[in-house]
Amino acid sequence: MPALTQRESRHDKFLRQHIDFPKTSSELDARRYCNLMMQRRGMTATFCKPSNTFIHAAHPDVHDICRNGGTYYNENYYDSNTPFSLTACRIIGGGSQSPPCNYRGRVSTQRIRVACLNGEPVHFKTPL
Asked: Which stretches are annotated as coiled coil (predicted)?
């Protein structure tokens, strides 16, 4: 994780929050995976981020959605042309909570929608 004094770019934040390739410890069940990764990636430091999706694909493959691997949707959103392996993490109990955080996880393979800026993904919108 970057030092607190460094300013993380939107693209770097997207990579930290959403890309996990190769997938961390496939021996963990989805719940334990989410609890570990949400903490490891800095999304439970002061409050529990309510939800987050991890994309288990190489950075260039996800990056390509903003170029020839995606289809324009609207504004700055693009839909992937191919499905990706995903783990969706959701806080148990709902709402903003303080740590310790407890998540449930759901594994799927779906196409995704991302926001692009200057040809790079900067925001994960939704699975399709």
From this structure: none
What is the homologous superfamily of the domain 10-127 according to CATH? Ribonuclease A-like domain (3.10.130.10)
CA atoms within 13 Å, Cβ hemisphere of 84: 35
Residue type, 65: I
| Per-residue pLDDT tens listing for the chain (128 residues) | 444 446 899 999 999 999 999 999 867 899 999 999 999 999 998 899 999 999 999 999 999 999 999 999 999 999 999 999 999 999 998 666 888 899 999 999 999 999 999 999 999 999 98
18 is catalytic: yes
- The pTM for the full model equals 0.91
Catalytic residue among 11, 18, 56, 63: 18
Single out the catalytic residue among 56, 59, 63, 123. 123
